[in-house]
Design goal:
This protein is an alpha+beta fold and 175 residues long. It folds into 2 domains: 118 residues, Beta-lactamase (3-Layer(aba) Sandwich); 31 residues, no CATH class. It contains 6 helices and 8 strands. The strands form 4 sheets. The protein has a two-stranded antiparallel ribbon with strand order 1-2. A two-stranded antiparallel sheet has the order 3-6. A hairpin with a 5-residue loop joins strand 7 and strand 8. Helix 1 packs across helix 3. It is globular and about 45 Å long. It starts with a strand and ends with a strand. The relative contact order is 0.16.
């Protein structure tokens, strides 16, 4: 598990810090990489990928964890550019291996929230897509059974802790 303060400071890791099979977590990197291409004028949200626009595929990939959308977007970005984008944000990510360390995921989320990955419009849009992901099966618990499982849909009323934290959608929450 990794925790990051969105106001800055080091990422704190607990337990196993080794890279793990990133599964759908890596879709965030793909989304940010595609949106950077849009910002650079090298891609468009209204271009057709598969049977739908790139904008539809981005939303589907994040909201519904759609693997077909992910493959289409990764194909459009290209393997080398995806490697280069990951390296440019300080992440050692290879889509063929699809492994990330918890600290790397925390850094990506912190940079996204702080507006360091995308322009303000695309940052807001990607965070909104993440906030609309209301399927707890898509956001598995990162802790053991002794700790509460906190996702962007979890109920916090039953807990007794008082320290604030930030959920994946960038909202300030309290335990």
């Amino acid at each position: 598990m990794a925790l990051a303060d969105t106001a800055g400071g080091p990422v704190r890791t607990f337990g196993d810090t080794a890279a793990y099979s990133a599964a759908s977590t890596a879709k965030l990197i793909t989304a940010a990489a595609y949106l950077r291409l849009v910002e650079a004028g090298e891609a468009r949200l209204d271009e057709t990928l598969g049977n739908y626009t790139a904008a539809f595929q981005l939303k589907s990939m994040i909201n519904s964890s759609n693997n077909d959308s992910w493959l289409l977007l990764m194909g459009r970005i290209g393997y080398q550019r995806l490697l280069q984008y990951a390296a440019s944000i300080g992440i050692a990510y290879d889509p063929k291996d699809n492994r990330l360390a918890p600290g790397e995921v925390a850094r990506v989320l912190t940079k996204l929230y702080a507006g360091q990955l995308l322009n303000p419009t695309n940052t807001a849009q990607l965070l909104a897509y993440m906030q609309e992901t209301n399927n707890e099966e898509l956001i598995p618990a990162a802790s053991g059974p002794a700790l509460p499982s906190i996702t962007n849909t979890a109920s916090l009323e039953e807990t007794s802790m008082t320290q604030p934290f930030w959920n994946m959608a960038g909202q300030r929450m309290r335990w």
